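Narrative progress, year one. The postdoctoral researcher (J.K.) led the effort to move from monomer predictions toward full complexes, under supervision of the PI. The following entry was the first complex the group processed end to end, covering 407 residues in total.
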Amino acid sequence: MSFLNAEEPGVCDLVTDFGINVLWHPSLGMELGERLHELLQDLIAGRRPLDILVFEGTVIRAPNGTGEWNRFAGRPMQEWVRALTAVANYTIAIGDCATWGGIPATPPNPTDSMGLQYLKRDRGGFLGADYRSKAGLPVINVPGCPAHPDWITQILVAVATGRAQDIALDDLQRPKTFFSTFTQTGCTRNMHFAYKVSATEFGQRKGCLFYDLGCRGPMTHSPCNRILWNRQSSKTRAGMPCIGCTEPEFPHADLAPGTVFKTQTLMGVPRTLPTGIEKMGYVKMMAVAKAAAPRWVEDDIFLV
Amino acid sequence: MSENHQELLERMRRMLATGLQTTVEPFPPTEKEFFRIAEALRALDPDDIRGKLVIAGFLDHPYGPENWKCADCIYYLANRKWCDLPELAVPVEPDWYCRLWRM
């Protein structure tokens, strides 16, 4: 559903401007029943080429590795995944479930779920660490819960226009163009972060959400404040903490009670500090920044 | 609150200076204990300043091994001399302390 909201480029642009033939999609696909089955068999047999396999959803292996708890088109989904990834020129995992296993793979992982090439941060996953698509690339991971639709369409365009080899991937196989910066990059609350002024309630327009409300923007790799959602806003801009959904550990702290939307501290200091900052530096920075904070940073400057 | 900022600050200062016994310990080590204190504060009348001082464990001086003080706390607004934690929402001096201190 997120995919259908893409704007730059939009889903229709993929077809009209970039010549992508969408063979099947759960909401857009025209093929049903036997015809879908026939299409899938043609792809697996090589009678039709499968340029790009875009997979969303966790790979369910329960019970006992059979995958019978998630059947699709007459057989366990995991069997389709195995067969289709073997013939795809490129394989793209969309969303946390397909990349890392997602919420279903959170311990105790009753459905024995895993991502295509990762289980949380451990490389391997359903396809194994050595998997390469026919074009020689590992799974391209586009995480998020949900993934931003424009991340999806822009990667599809890069692959479809022959620039797949130009997509630099980070150590979690995420496209660096999206995932080398932090959610905090471009956040409108950065001045409040800098001067250590905290938001204390959801929806407040002043204050940083990191200090009290559990925002993971300073340690989450995503472009959520560079490529805005609906081209308008982002969680943090709207006063909602980043939940760190592009990182393999999401949902963080395994959703233990009291861990969501609350900065976890130990003796008053955040347990997880902004990436790259040591505790001593954080403490020093806090004292200096608060002392230097100008009056205006304590006011809601967005109100007129 | 009917009192202005300065009057209220002065009243709080007097209460602390004249030996008001507040619950300075235990310091809440994690969010779980912090939440319990915040919950007790929420049960108070917002004008119950004495109750806030006692439950939050206010002191009119820095406290702890690293001399924690309001000036270093994330809830402190330096220019207004104000504690912005919704459950407290009181004027404070930069060198005061309470056990809801967080960095």
